[in-house]
């Protein structure tokens, strides 16, 4: 590594650390959960406000900015080779805050060199880090061969229609990485399968059933309102009972997490469903549906639904139930599965329908195949080699269950800034969970890694 360059980057980070954190806080302060479209805001006013703030920050850093009709935007550094460009892509939309926070989720706070708030890790913190990456490159004064764009998406969490719009109106970058996962480099992502398990109209004892804030997050709380007598009900672990208008509110208390890595989570919807079954708080139609929910929630590997499978590059399938709600007298459970190359969407749908029988219907199914790029391609080598040089490690590329923008580009990977061995503090939580947290040092180090990786990528003949 060039020692003089290394020292210049370190000096840049020291000089810009506090302002970078303030800028992350300004972006976190905007509730950018998807909402109904408005003029100039295809994914709602919050997402548009977050995009505007991102471009405002980029402009203040001295970068050229472009707004693509509110779908997406980017900051850009010019290069001498026209027609080709490198890109990074982050997103400034977030999942709903949910409950369980120890402070305001949209007021970023610092504690023991960690920052907490919705989006600090997924993906507003990394978004600001990429803007400072471009600022650092500009201040270094290194002539660029390829222009570099830092793309800011607004619809990653709920559909990725933003990047589809962008690619319909712009040529794809010759290489792109998204800071929306873990280091060192993710060169493959599992397939995605989504659907809803819908009950018939049961006319039974369950008057309400709700839980979860996002389809792709394991809920840590859920509740059902049932016609029952408190005196006849038994206590159970992680269940509380409350009288409510002559009925009983059954609450489940679980442990949240991301759908892509549900190991160690406890789904509160499953807790409530199992309690209702065990205590007979259902008629026959409701029982059949609750038994379907039991099959779903009994295993995040899909064993209860008969869809468990695994392969070499990706490992085992995962599946979770994200949101539970009632609509027109029917109970609806959303599902999110991440699957390896050993199955496909059609096989999963057929197996689930066979497993649920007449207890529920499987509706609103969609699926996307896994993607995989060989680890020894030049751009991926540039990323992994840079990471190992900066950290002194000897890591290898990996695959994951998470879904990022990378799958939409012809040559792209996800590249940090998380670390697989990151240990959360007692006061912090994971992305998509309460008290979402990010280590300040890791965000700063990611800027150095991205600066050096982009300089190395500039040398490749694309």
Whole-Å distance between the termini? 23 Å
What general outline do the C-alpha atoms trace?
A: elongated
Largest pleated sheet: 6 strands, mixed
CATH names the topology of the largest domain as Aminopeptidase
Would you identify the regions where 5 or more consecutive residues have pLDDT less than 50? none
Strand content: 25-35%
Total number of domains: 2
Rounded average pLDDT: 96
Helix content: 25-40%
Strand order of the biggest β-sheet:
1-2-6-3-7-24
Radius of gyration over C-alpha positions, nearest whole angstrom: 23 Å
Number of helices: 9
Tell me the name of the CATH class of the largest domain: Alpha Beta
Structural class category: alpha+beta
CATH H-level homologous superfamily name of the largest domain: Zn peptidases
Number of strands: 26
CATH architecture descriptor name of the largest domain: 3-Layer(aba) Sandwich
Descriptive account of the structure:
- This protein has 2 domains: 3-189 and 371-457, Aminopeptidase (3-Layer(aba) Sandwich); 191-368, 2-Layer Sandwich (Alpha-Beta Plaits).
- It is 30% helix and 27% strand.
- The protein has helices at residues 3-28, 45-60, 124-140, 161-169, 268-278, 284-297, 345-356, 378-391, 440-457; strands at 64-68, 72-77, 86-91, 109-111, 114-116, 148-153, 175-178, 181-183, 186-189, 191-198, 206-211, 217-218, 221-226, 239-244, 247-253, 257-258, 310-311, 315-316, 318-327, 330-339, 361-368, 371-372, 398-400, 412-414, 417-419, 437-439.
- Strands 1-2-6-3-7-24 form a 6-stranded mixed beta sheet, sandwiched between helices.
- Helix 1 runs antiparallel to helix 3.
- The mean pLDDT is 96.
């Amino acid at each position: 590594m060039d020692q003089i360059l290394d020292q210049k980057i370190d000096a840049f980070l020291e000089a810009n650390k506090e302002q970078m954190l303030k800028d992350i806080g300004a972006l976190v302060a905007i509730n950018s959960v998807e909402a109904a479209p408005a003029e100039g805001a295809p994914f709602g006013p919050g997402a548009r406000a977050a995009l505007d703030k991102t471009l405002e920050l980029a402009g203040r850093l001295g970068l050229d900015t472009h707004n693509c009709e509110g779908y997406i935007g980017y900051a850009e550094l010019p290069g001498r080779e026209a027609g080709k460009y490198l890109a990074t892509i982050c997103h400034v939309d977030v999942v709903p805050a949910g409950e369980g926070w120890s402070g305001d989720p949209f007021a970023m706070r610092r504690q023991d060199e960690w920052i907490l708030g919705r989006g600090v890790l997924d993906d507003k913190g990394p978004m600001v880090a990429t803007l400072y990456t471009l600022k650092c490159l500009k201040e270094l004064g290194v002539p660029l061969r390829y222009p570099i764009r830092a793309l800011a998406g607004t619809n990653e969490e709920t559909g990725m229609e933003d990047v589809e719009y962008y690619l319909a109106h712009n040529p794809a970058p010759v290489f792109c990485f998204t800071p929306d996962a873990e280091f060192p480099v993710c060169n493959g992502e599992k397939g995605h399968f989504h659907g809803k398990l819908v009950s018939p109209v049961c006319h039974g004892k369950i008057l309400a059933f709700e839980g979860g804030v996002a389809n792709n997050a394991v809920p840590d709380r859920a509740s059902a309102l049932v016609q029952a007598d408190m005196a006849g009900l038994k206590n159970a672990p992680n269940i509380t009972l409350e009288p409510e208008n002559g009925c009983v509110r059954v609450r489940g208390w679980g442990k949240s997490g991301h759908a892509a890595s549900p190991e160690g989570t406890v789904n509160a919807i499953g807790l409530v469903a199992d309690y209702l079954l065990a205590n007979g708080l259902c008629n026959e139609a409701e029982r059949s549906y609750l038994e379907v929910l039991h099959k779903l929630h009994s295993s995040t590997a899909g064993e209860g639904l008969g869809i468990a499978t695994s392969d070499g590059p990706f490992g085992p399938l995962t599946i979770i139930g994200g949101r539970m709600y009632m609509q027109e007298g029917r109970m609806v459970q959303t599902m999110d599965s991440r699957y390896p190359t050993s199955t496909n969407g059609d096989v999963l749908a057929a197996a689930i329908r066979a497993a649920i029988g007449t207890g529920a219907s499987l509706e609103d199914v969609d699926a996307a195949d896994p993607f995989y790029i060989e680890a020894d391609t030049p751009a991926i080598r540039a990323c992994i080699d840079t990471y190992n040089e900066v950290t002194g490690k000897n890591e290898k590329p990996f695959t994951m269950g998470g879904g990022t923008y990378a799958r939409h580009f012809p040559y792209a990977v996800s590249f940090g800034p998380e670390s697989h061995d990151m240990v959360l503090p007692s006061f912090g939580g994971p992305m998509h969970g309460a008290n979402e947290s990010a280590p300040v040092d890791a965000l700063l180090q990611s800027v150095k890694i991205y600066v050096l990786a982009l300089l190395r990528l500039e040398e490749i003949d694309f």
